[in-house]
Amino acid sequence: MINYILNKIFYGFLTLFGVITVVFLLFSVLPGDPARMMLDQKEDPEQLTQIRKKLGLDQPLWKQYAFYINDLSPISFHNNDVNTTYTSLSSEKYNYTKLIDFGTNEMVLKTPYLRESFQKQGKNVSTIIGETLPNTIVLAVASIIIATIFGVLLGIISALMKDTWVDRLLLIVTSFGMSIPSFFAAIIIAYIFAFLMHDITGLNMIGSLYEVDDLGEGKHLVLKNLILPAITLGSRPLAVFTQLTRNSLLEVLNQDYIRTAFAKGLSRKTVITKHALRNALNPVVTAISGWFASMLAGSVFVEFVFGWNGLGKEIVNALNTLDLPIVMGAVLVIAVMFIVINIIVDILYGVLDPRVRIK
Question: Any idea what DSSP says for residue 112?
Fold first, then answer.
């Protein structure tokens, strides 16, 4: 079991290393000069030279990549001469603890440094992500709860009413739900329930989890703003969970042990709830874990349409202003969460089913 866990962690690190490499190379070839972006396109040769040196852009690409890996690594190597290298500890950009002193160089333990925003000068990307990621997590959790509860219930109803008009209607609706793009669904839902039916629902077209009062003196929680974005983000997994529950339950109901349970005189309710449904939900649990990780990335358009102040909206704003460090940092954070969730799920599978470990 230990070898199985270590193997999953090792492949997780390889995946993360690949994501880091692709992200760095992809954003390194984009047009535009980051130094000029920070100067707001001003032509000041002396300042441009200083900023390029500060960002490590005066070095060849392979060395910039080494700097990037060094910034992200929890254990990294630095020196104390701010005038000679980008990785100097004297620059006060790292939050670190010294491990080993090699004289002019030191090995330190630090929090990963995601660099500074181009547009929000002086503000670390990690701070920006820390302010917006909790709102995205709240939205993703609310969405997956809605999708799971209603998806499983509708899937059970569809399976028990197979080949009836209810079953056919649910299949049509769920097929439509799986095919519609999230940004289009967000626009339609916002228009219908927050614009046309605002007097009935009382919901707003835009709004975040916290809103500032009219005097600007404080923030207060507004849970109703969570309803429409959570329903929109959860609509696609809800459709998937409905069809997955239906198909899985129908397959289980055709098993021999189910017919045996009925032959013993057990009621239909008992057979379904205590025997069939328990086994039918296994693939649904698998899908839930995968969809939750996907929602963190899929929230980009939903947050932007509804004005939800989460990581997705921050990514869109950063793309519009070419604030590359924010985009790169957000992509890496989402990738890390995706990898961690999948590793945890794989380990749980190995614990629950020894056949997975053997494979």
Answer: -
Give first-to-last CA distance, the chain, whole Å.
Answer: 12
pLDDT means over runs of 10, the chain (359 residues):
79 89 84 66 68 76 88 85 67 80 83 84 86 90 91 90 89 86 86 87 84 68 88 90 89 82 79 77 77 76 88 88 87 88 76 57
Q: What is the H or E stretch that residue 96 is in?
A: strand 96-101
To which residue do tokens 């700097």 refer? 67
Name the pairing type of β-strands 105-110 and 210-212: unpaired
Domain count, the chain: 1
**Helix residue ranges, H only, the chain:** 2-28, 34-38, 45-55, 61-72, 125-160, 165-179, 182-189, 198-201, 227-253, 256-263, 268-271, 277-280, 282-306, 311-320, 324-352, 354-358
CATH of the domain at 329: 1.10.3720.10
Question: What is the extent of the structural domain holding 248?
Answer: 125-358
Query: Which DSSP symbol is given to 197?
Result: T
CA distances to 70, 95, 152, 171, 239 from 168, rounded to whole Å, are 56, 58, 17, 5, 14
Whole-angstrom distance, CA of residue 168 vs CA of residue 155? 12
Q: Which residues contact 104 (CB under 8 A, 6 or more apart)?
A: 79, 80, 81
SS3 97: strand
On whether the CB atoms of residues 173 and 291 are closer than 8 A, the answer is: no
* Contact in structure between 243 and 174 (CB atoms under 8 Å): yes
What CA–CA distance (Å, rounded) separates 160 from 170?
12
Q: Which amino acid is at 220?
A: H
pTM score, whole prediction:
0.83
**Long-range CB contacts (< 8 A, 24+ apart) of 313-322?**
313/132, 314/128, 314/129, 314/132, 318/117, 318/119, 321/118, 321/119, 322/30, 322/32, 322/37, 322/118
Q: How far apart are CA 126 and CA 114, in angstroms?
A: 6
pLDDT at 150: 93
CB atoms closer than 10 angstroms to residue 279: 15
> What is the Cα–Cα distance from 295 to 316, expressed in whole angstroms?
16
In a domain, 4, yes or no: no
List the structure tokens of 237: 């997994």
- Give the number of residues written for the chain: 359
Q: How far apart are CA 61 and CA 66, in angstroms?
A: 9
